[in-house]
């Protein structure tokens, strides 16, 4: 789920950037440092939307670097247990499949794939119903529910399921519903 | 929605990450805020409460269906793959029963009983396709590698001249897909490759590609090496550029459950259907019966040095193993024989055969009909020569071994020509052979020509140490060119 939140960060800036473009340089550095990263607490930072305030810079003893506290607003993405997401399948093997929903990778094990779908190995490994009406393979889009997450300092891992109603392959008129 | 931008972000810093409960609590808080409303709205609020209660009940039911989970079937990234809880640090069932299948995914583990079921399923599927399992070692079995700094300048010059100077059209193209750490890979003729990212020369054993192609029709193949993961993946790419033979079944040292030995516990199949090709016996302590020992492929001088051998390597002798009559071609025939015997004996879908029994039967045909007596091989104070490795090897190969010579003896195995038994052999026109003849039989899987293993005076060392047929590289290449143009 996406959130729009206000965060704070301390940026260190080298003296070579002190000048009329100081504020722009700070914003540039902020965007470079923060966009695309993940913190366990807030999730993946998708984009910085605005800078609220830039506090007074503090010169660090011993070096010429200056630390600026920046308050900024950004869009973050954090998956939750119980949330329903759409993802794209990236890898299928006999233990289950991996799907990606934006920056987060979700593993759906074969325990949480409906019993009528079985693994077919071959040139294109996939999970298929016995009448081949529904086939989940690499690059298929699936709707899944997050069953569990593990949140580290810098990474989020998710386990998902497609065993419930309305989950599974999307984009095929005969599937899912 | 106002719940999404509270200054203290309770939603995001809460320890529980259950989204539905979060929404519920926020909605309940909101409806409590609007408590001073007229009766009609109060009814609506009550309906809302009922709905919330139902939703909570449904949640509890959902989690009840996952309560079959305290025996967690497995973990990915430390999260149970069925119920989503984090792996507890101290499990009552003992986390020792979880087997890490790192070659499938680095963070993947399966519980012991689930793994057993998966192995049974795989076995049934593979046998249904009329295939068995084959586990292949890399170093000295399918290829030989040497670091650049171990290859001296004269050997490097020889390699560049004989193998890397081959015209472009004779070199098979190497598709993309090698791991990035391997860097640039320069292929040469004869299966020699120069790998820049790892500073390695690698020479594939002649017939390797053809062997894999033919074996893949009969076996589901695994690579199992004691090397590092990146090395294993790079070598697998050289042997199998399109990935169709191994399909990611590459096991390296860190995937193995034990650091110093190899085990079939992470191979998804059953011990009765797996054959192993390796040059070292000691590294498979629990599965000697499944093992087919291959003769070591010593291409680079460093390989001979590593094993303390004084004999020249193939580069020194300017030779290479023969393609069609070398070690891999021989072992392929053996594998084909074992495969056909297995499926012939179990025609129905029951597959009660054991590949280990079939292998020992095939092995015992090699020297069947031979009766051997030994001279000057065992020390005189040796109490039980039947327990020595050489005797046991002869028995495995199907020969009958006796201590005293009589008329039915066919071979005398000796190290000295002038012993009583040796002289007796000469008189009665029996074969007099060096013990290397027995080892050759073991490597070649056929009865070798006795005349190639004479007992020479003053020479107790084996006349040859490799038994596979080798050919001169230039001659062989010219012959191949001529064959192609004809």
UniProtKB/TrEMBL annotation, chain A:
An example of a Gene Ontology cellular component annotation for this protein is: RNA polymerase II, core complex
Q: Name one GO biological process term.
A: transcription initiation at RNA polymerase II promoter
Q: Which CDD domains match?
A: RNAP_II_Rpb7_N (cd04329), S1_RNAPII_Rpb7 (cd04462)
What GO MF terms are annotated?
Answer: single-stranded DNA binding; single-stranded RNA binding; translation initiation factor binding
- Its domain of life reads Eukaryota
Note whether Transcription occurs among the keywords: yes
Chain ranges of the RNA polymerase Rpb7-like N-terminal domain: 8-64
Q: Mind telling me which Pfam families this protein's record contains?
A: S1, SHS2_Rpb7-N
InterPro entries assigned? NA-bd_OB-fold, RNA_pol_Rpb7-like_N_sf, Rpb7-like, Rpb7-like_N, S1_domain
Where does this protein reside within or beyond the cell? Answer: Nucleus
| Keywords in alphabetical order | DNA-directed RNA polymerase, Nucleus, Transcription
Q: Which residues form the S1 motif domain?
A: 79-156
Question: Taking the first listed entry, what is the main subcellular location of this protein, grouped into a coarse class?
Answer: nucleus
Q: Tell me its family.
A: Belongs to the eukaryotic RPB7/RPC8 RNA polymerase subunit family.
* Protein name per Swiss-Prot or TrEMBL: DNA-directed RNA polymerase II subunit RPB7
């Amino acid at each position: 789920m996406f959130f729009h939140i206000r965060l704070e960060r301390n940026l260190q800036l080298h003296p070579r950037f002190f000048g009329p473009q100081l504020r722009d340089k700070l914003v540039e550095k902020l965007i470079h440092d923060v966009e695309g990263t993940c913190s366990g607490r807030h999730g993946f930072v998708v984009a910085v939307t605005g800078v609220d305030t830039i506090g007074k810079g503090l010169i660090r003893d011993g070096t010429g670097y200056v630390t600026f506290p920046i308050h900024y607003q950004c869009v973050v993405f954090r998956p939750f247990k119980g949330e329903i997401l759409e993802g794209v399948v990236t890898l299928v093997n006999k233990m289950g499949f991996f799907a990606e929903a934006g920056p987060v990778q979700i593993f759906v094990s074969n325990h949480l794939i409906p019993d009528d779908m079985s693994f077919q190995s071959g040139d294109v490994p996939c999970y298929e119903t016995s009448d081949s009406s529904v086939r989940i393979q690499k690059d298929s889009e699936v709707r899944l529910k997050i069953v569990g997450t593990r949140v580290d300092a810098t990474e989020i891992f998710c386990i998902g399921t497609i065993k419930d109603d309305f989950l599974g392959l999307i984009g095929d008129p005969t599937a899912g519903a | 929605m106002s719940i999404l931008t509270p200054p203290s972000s309770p939603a995001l810093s809460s320890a529980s990450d259950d989204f539905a409960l979060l929404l519920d609590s926020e909605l309940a808080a909101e409806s409590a805020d609007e408590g001073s409303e007229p009766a009609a709205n109060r009814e609506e609020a009550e309906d809302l409460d009922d709905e919330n209660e139902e939703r909570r009940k449904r949640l509890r039911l959902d989690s009840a269906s996952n309560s079959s989970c305290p025996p967690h079937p497995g973990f990915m990234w430390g999260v149970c793959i069925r119920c989503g809880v984090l792996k507890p640090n101290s499990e009552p069932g003992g986390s020792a029963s979880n087997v890490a299948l790192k070659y499938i995914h680095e963070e993947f583990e399966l519980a012991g009983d689930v793994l057993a079921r998966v192995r049974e399923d795989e076995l049934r599927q593979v046998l249904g396709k009329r295939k068995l399992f084959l586990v292949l070692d890399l170093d000295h079995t399918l290829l030989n590698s040497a670091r650049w700094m171990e290859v001296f300048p004269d050997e490097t010059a020889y390699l560049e001249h004989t193998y890397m100077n081959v015209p472009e059209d004779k070199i098979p193209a190497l598709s993309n897909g090698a791991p990035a750490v391997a860097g640039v890979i320069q292929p040469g003729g004869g299966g020699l490759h120069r790998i820049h990212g790892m500073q390695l020369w690698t020479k594939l054993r002649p017939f390797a590609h053809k062997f894999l192609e033919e074996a893949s029709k009969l076996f589901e193949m695994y690579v199992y090496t004691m090397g590092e993961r990146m090395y294993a993946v790079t070598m697998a790419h050289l042997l199998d550029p399109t990935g169709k033979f191994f399909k990611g079944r590459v096991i390296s040292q860190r995937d193995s459950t034990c650091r110093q030995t190899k085990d079939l516990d992470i191979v998804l199949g059953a011990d009765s259907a797996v054959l192993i090709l390796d040059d070292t016996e000691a590294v498979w302590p629990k599965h000697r019966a499944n093992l087919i020992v291959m003769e070591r492929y010593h291409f680079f001088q460093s390989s001979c040095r590593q094993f303390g051998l004084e004999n020249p390597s193939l580069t020194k002798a300017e030779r290479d193993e023969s393609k069609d009559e070398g070690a891999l071609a021989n072992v392929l025939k053996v594998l084909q024989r074992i495969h056909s015997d297995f499926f012939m004996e179990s025609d129905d879908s029951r597959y009660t055969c054991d590949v280990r029994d079939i292998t020992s039967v095939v092995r015992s045909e090699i020297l069947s009909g031979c009766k051997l007596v030994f001279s000057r091989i065992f020390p005189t104070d040796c109490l039980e020569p039947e327990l020595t490795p050489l005797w046991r090897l002869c028995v495995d190969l199907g020969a009958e071994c006796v201590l005293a010579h009589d008329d039915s003896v066919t071979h005398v195995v000796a190290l000295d020509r002038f012993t009583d038994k040796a002289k007796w052999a000469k008189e009665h026109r029996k074969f007099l052979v060096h013990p290397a003849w027995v080892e050759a039989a073991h490597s070649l899987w056929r009865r070798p020509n006795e005349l190639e293993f004479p007992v020479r005076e003053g020479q107790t060392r084996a006349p040859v140490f490799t038994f596979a047929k080798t050919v001169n590289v230039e001659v062989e290449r010219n012959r191949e060119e001529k064959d192609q143009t004809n």
